[in-house]
């Protein structure tokens, strides 16, 4: 069964997400306990970094510590409910950061090291909706493995907590279903484009290999034509300069040179006698092979579909017959004939799919006569597939602030739990997919991509090798947004037309 044809997400994404929120909205204790249980009950050790649950149920207190590595972002939110100055102070150790202040008066400072200070002023105009919401995002200027570790402090006028909480909840609920659908459509488009691009490149590589095989045919044909030309060297004046300069070792030429020492008439008589004697002789050659066709060698002993082979042997006949290639369980497919002589045949192997590598046989048919069988190691052509859906074999990340994950038609969604003041905090964690799953029939992992969707970001933290399609996704959610989503694609290759155990069962 091919599981690649899954429906796209419906316009009811927001409603489904809300149901996911309600299902995940247990008490604080239950949320923490379920996260711990998911990490230990199944006995599988987690391989990724897990985000510690941040403080909640109150407005942020300062300073707050942060650590960022790779492409991930640390984000912090705060509210201002009365006019006055804002001072944001970010200090750290490690690589240069890109720090941005987002709000009514946005600021950004890319590529700096050590410290960034932003100063701004909140005016009455900024407070017409009751509160002014701000956030600070921190990320590495050039994503890499070395982390940046530091702290952020924010100073602002005293906050009315009730007004701030209402503003944050209003911001979270302001994201409409239409906006969610549009964002998902954009993520889906990026996923499909990336998969199509990878498949096109894979197809081009296969075509280059097939073309390289076809390019072998012409040199082989030239070799056959040269072998069929009579090897005759002219002697005497007809041979031109080349023949005159080439040393002769034939007996009759030696005899002729000996005759030149005699008189003219004697030499002529001697030559005439030699010619008469030679006319009586018949050319003695090996008797023609009269048995069934026989293969003595193959130009190569392993390969896949459309491989070009030169078959040497005897008794093939100048009348073209057929070359057969065995396929399990009990089939024999005709190869494509490019050239045929009595002793050499050029063939292109048939396009065999749906089988694993196996020891094949090649033999020649001349009418009712069959040749001996010669072993050939068949290597199947490779095919590219993509795993872009989750199975029950996963461990979702999450914390007090965010749900443990929900898979919606290929998208992975983490939504905010309705914790008081939870909207002011960013959050991050890891999702792990296909912890125990193993691909079958020689299929292996070649890479993975993650495509961030709504509300934050995500990237590949780790991907499995060989037959294990394990994927570890690091994700984060920004302040004041209702959810984080992403799509993923795990790229696998294996024998064309053969089940892999996940995409095609």
Write the layout of secondary structure elements.
Layout: H1 13-24, H2 28-40, E1 64-68, E2 73-80, E3 84-93, E4 97-102, E5 107-112, E6 115-122, E7 132-140, E8 148-155, H3 161-173, H4 177-214, H5 217-228, H6 240-245, H7 251-259, H8 264-280, E9 294-298, E10 302-303, E11 308-314, E12 322-327, E13 331-334, E14 336-340, E15 344-348, E16 358-366, E17 369-370, E18 374-378, E19 382-387, E20 394-395, E21 406-408, E22 411-415, E23 427-433, E24 444-452, E25 456-463, E26 471-477, E27 483-495
As a percent range, the share of helical residues equals 10-25%
Low-confidence stretches: 4-53, 230-265, 278-284
Cα-atom Rg, whole angstroms? 39 Å
Shape: elongated
N-to-C CA distance:
5 Å
Structural class: alpha+beta
- Largest β-sheet summary: 6 strands, mixed
Number of DSSP strands?
Answer: 27
Q: Average pLDDT across residues?
A: 81
Percent in strands: 25-35%
Number of helices: 8
């Amino acid at each position: 069964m091919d599981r690649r044809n899954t429906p796209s997400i419906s316009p009811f994404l927001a409603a489904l997400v809300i149901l996911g929120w309600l299902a995940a909205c247990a008490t604080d204790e239950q949320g923490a306990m379920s996260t711990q249980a998911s990490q230990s009950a199944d006995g599988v050790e987690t391989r990724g970094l897990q985000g510690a649950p941040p403080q909640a149920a109150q407005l942020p207190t300062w300073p707050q510590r942060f650590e960022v590595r790779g492409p991930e972002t640390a984000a912090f939110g705060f509210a201002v409910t009365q006019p006055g100055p804002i001072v944001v102070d970010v200090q750290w150790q490690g690589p240069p950061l890109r720090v941005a202040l987002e709000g009514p008066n946005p600021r950004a400072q890319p590529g700096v090291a050590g410290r960034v200070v932003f100063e701004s002023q909140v005016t009455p105009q900024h407070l017409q909706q009751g509160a002014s919401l701000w956030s600070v995002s921190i990320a590495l200027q050039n994503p890499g493995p070395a982390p940046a570790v530091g702290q952020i402090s924010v100073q602002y006028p005293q906050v009315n907590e009730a007004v701030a909480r209402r503003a944050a909840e209003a911001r979270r609920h302001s994201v409409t279903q239409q906006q969610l659908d549009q964002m998902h459509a954009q993520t889906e488009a990026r996923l499909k484009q990336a998969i199509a691009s990878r498949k096109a490149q894979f197809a081009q590589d296969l075509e280059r290999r097939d073309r390289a095989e076809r390019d072998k045919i012409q040199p082989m044909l030239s070799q056959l034509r040269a072998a069929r030309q009579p090897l005759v060297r002219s002697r005497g004046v007809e041979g031109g300069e080349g023949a005159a300069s080439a040393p002769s070792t034939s007996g009759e030429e030696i005899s002729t040179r000996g005759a030149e020492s005699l008189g003219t008439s004697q030499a002529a008589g001697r030559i005439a006698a030699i010619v008469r004697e030679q006319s009586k002789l018949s050319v003695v050659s090996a008797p023609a092979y009269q048995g069934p066709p026989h293969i003595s060698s193959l130009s190569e002993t392993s390969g896949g579909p459309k491989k070009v082979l030169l078959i040497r042997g005897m008794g093939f006949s100048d009348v073209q017959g057929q070359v057969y290639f065995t396929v399990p369980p009990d089939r024999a497919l005709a190869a494509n004939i490019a050239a045929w002589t009595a002793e050499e045949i050029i063939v292109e192997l048939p396009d065999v799919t749906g089988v694993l590598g196996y020891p094949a046989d090649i033999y020649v048919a001349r009418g009712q006569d069959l040749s001996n069988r010669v072993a050939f190691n068949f290597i199947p052509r490779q095919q590219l597939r993509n795993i872009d859906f989750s199975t029950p074999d996963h461990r979702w990340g999450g914390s007090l602030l965010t749900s443990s994950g929900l898979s919606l038609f290929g998208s992975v969604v983490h939504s905010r739990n309705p914790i008081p003041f939870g909207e002011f905090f960013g959050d991050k964690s890891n999702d792990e997919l296909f912890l125990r799953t193993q691909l079958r029939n020689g299929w292996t992992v070649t890479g993975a991509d993650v495509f961030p969707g709504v509300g934050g970001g995500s990237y590949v933290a780790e991907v499995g090798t060989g037959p294990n399609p394990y994927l570890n996704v690091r994700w984060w959610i920004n302040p004041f947004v209702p959810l984080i989503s992403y799509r993923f694609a795990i790229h696998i290759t294996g024998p064309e037309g053969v089940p892999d155990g996940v995409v095609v069962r």
